[in-house]
Please model this.
Amino acid sequence: MSGDLKWNKIMGAALATAFVVIGVQQVTGAIYHTEAPEKMGYFVDAPEEAAGGAAEAVLPPDWGTVLPTADLAAGEAAFARCQACHTVNAGGANGTGPNLYGVVGGPVMHAAGFAYSDAMAAHKAEAPTWTYDQLDQFLTAPGRHVPGTKMSFAGIRDTQTRINLIAWLRSQGSGGFAVPAPDPARQPGAAAPAEAAPAEAPAPGSEQAAAQAGGAAGSAPDTGPAAQSTTQATPAAPSAATSGNHSPR
Ligand code: HEC
Model:
């Protein structure tokens, strides 16, 4: 009899505790009502930095191949991000940034009456024309391609988006800027033979050879312990990767 009573008390206490816990949850839920954000986290529109300068190893787009197949509508949509600062219609006003009509293939600092930065003037001295490659590199990371530019825009990291955008920009007053013929040296898989050309082959065991071996392997950075160990590991002959199809036999 006393045992039953003891269990009643225990069960009662457990139930009471459960009610209290549930009650507290309900009340705090009502007070601290949280809604899931529509977009999770921050979207940072910054180009991806490949480690150890591997970015330089990536082939530039083969404009003769990619421009004719570019998605102009997607390019126009991508221009929405530029419109805060740029007009692109013929004779359009300069805003925070210069009007962009005819900029593809045009001279750097092409818009009359716009106060360009000194950085852009310095860039013009080195690369006077907005070629496809120049535009592509600028739009990938404006501040890296033209250090000190006053175009405060992080860049577009997606290559296809840049291709579409450049193709659409070309349709805005730059139709006369020719699309080059497809370039076999820029086709996927063309990198290795071009880099391992016999005439320019670096001395075996040199830092350059090690770097190229690393590049061919697609992993080792130019500097750092991995590259150093590669140099030490292959003192005599270039690796199979560097000699490629130029075998001495
Ligand atoms: C926050 C404002 C801003 C945004 C957004 C912006 N730009 Fe610019 N852009 C500028 C400014 C300012 C300059 C002039 C840079 C200088 O003088 O250093 C410029 C310069 C340029 C130039 C060089 C023009 C010339 O005459 O040499 C090009 C090309 C360009 N922008 C394209 C774009 C594209 C394409 C986008 C969208 C992907 C974009 N910009 C987004 C402000 C902006």
